[in-house]
């Protein structure tokens, strides 16, 4: 599979990324919003770009869960979880039948629409596998609220903001709805928090931020969720609804 971009965090250190996943959303706000937007109980769900498969067993209420992952190093880790059916594939090539899936989640995977990185191909492939009326929910970083957004914009520069604006406009053009969830990271041990900050950010900036926050074991963190609904009528039919539920 040559159409994937190796992740700069999970593929670099699956162990540290595991700590990050464990620390996410201790209040369960993100999870509650995902379940409210597109419930998966008794449904068929795809975790697209599932990485090492951390989230797969959390969909235990689904009738069937598929993890799709292109990275040959992460794929075996996801298979070893023993949750759901894990298949090699990518957003552009999903090895599943047409109209066989109720819900697709893409969590920090593939859907980073930018001027030089249109995500049309992946969205068309998701549309192919979704049943009419099925949902795609994309989980992305919010760049405006919370300490993590502050770190992103200060350490990676203003291009982050421009990318976020491009992504919002792109999703709006696809007829998706956007929701922001303000949540947090909470770690049990400072050393784990430090390791994750150093995985996610350039070393100099990460060290400077940690020195300024010597007792921190977490931070505030906001997500942008994009909810795209596959029209019940064929795409292109004049009366086909292409909008999700309103903001
Ligand atoms: C930051 S990791 C997130 C992994 C997982 N979703 C999680 O939250 O633990 C990004 C994932 O996207 C995957 N990825 C990269 N290119 C992709 C593509 N074209 N289609 C699907 N997944 C892709 C990477 O291999 C990696 O597993």
Mean pLDDT: 93
CATH topology of the domain at 27-149 and 158-186 and 220-229: Rossmann fold
Q: Write down the overall geometry.
A: globular
Q: In DSSP terms, counting alpha (H) and pi (I) runs of 4 or more, how many helices?
A: 8
CATH superfamily of the domain at 27-149 and 158-186 and 220-229: Vaccinia Virus protein VP39
Question: Residue ranges: pLDDT <50 for 5 or more in a row?
Answer: 239-247
Q: Which H/E pattern describes the elements?
A: HHEEHEEHEHHEHHE
User: Which CATH-level-2 architecture of the domain at 27-149 and 158-186 and 220-229?
Assistant: 3-Layer(aba) Sandwich
User: Which structural class fits the helix and strand makeup?
Assistant: alpha/beta
Largest sheet: 7 strands, mixed
**Which ligands accompany this protein?**
S-adenosylmethionine
Q: Between the first and last Cα atoms, what is the distance in angstroms?
A: 37 Å
The fraction of residues in strands falls at 15-25%
Radius of gyration: 18 Å
Quaternary structure classification: single chain
Secondary structure tally: strands:
7
Q: Supply the CATH class of the domain at 27-149 and 158-186 and 220-229.
A: Alpha Beta
Query: How much helical structure, as a percent, in the residues?
Result: 25-40%
Strand order of the largest sheet: 3-2-1-4-5-7-6
């Amino acid at each position: 599979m040559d159409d994937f971009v190796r992740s700069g965090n999970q593929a670099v250190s699956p162990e540290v990324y595991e700590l990050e996943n464990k620390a996410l959303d201790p209040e369960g706000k993100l999870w509650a919003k995902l379940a409210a937007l597109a419930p998966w109980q008794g449904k068929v769900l795809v975790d697209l770009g599932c990485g090492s498969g951390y989230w797969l067993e959390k969909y235990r209420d689904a009738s069937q869960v598929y993890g799709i992952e292109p990275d040959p190093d992460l794929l075996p880790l996801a298979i070893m979880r023993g949750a759901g059916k894990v298949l090699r594939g990518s957003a552009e090539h999903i090895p599943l039948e047409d109209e066989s899936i109720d819900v697709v989640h893409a969590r920090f995977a593939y859907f980073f629409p930018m001027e030089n990185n249109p995500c049309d191909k992946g969205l068309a492939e998701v549309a192919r596998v979704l049943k009419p009326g099925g949902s795609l929910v994309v989980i992305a970083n919010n760049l405006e609220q919370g300490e993590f957004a502050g770190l992103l914009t200060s350490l990676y520069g203003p291009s982050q903001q421009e990318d976020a604006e491009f992504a919002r406009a792109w999703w709006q053009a696809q007829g998706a709805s956007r929701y922001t969830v303000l949540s947090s990271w909470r770690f049990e041990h400072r050393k784990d928090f430090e390791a994750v900050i150093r995985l996610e950010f350039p070393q100099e900036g990460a060290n400077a931020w940690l020195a300024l926050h010597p007792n921190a074991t977490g931070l505030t963190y906001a997500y942008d969720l994009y909810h795209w609904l596959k029209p019940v009528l064929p795409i292109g039919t004049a009366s086909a609804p292409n909008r999700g539920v309103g903001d």
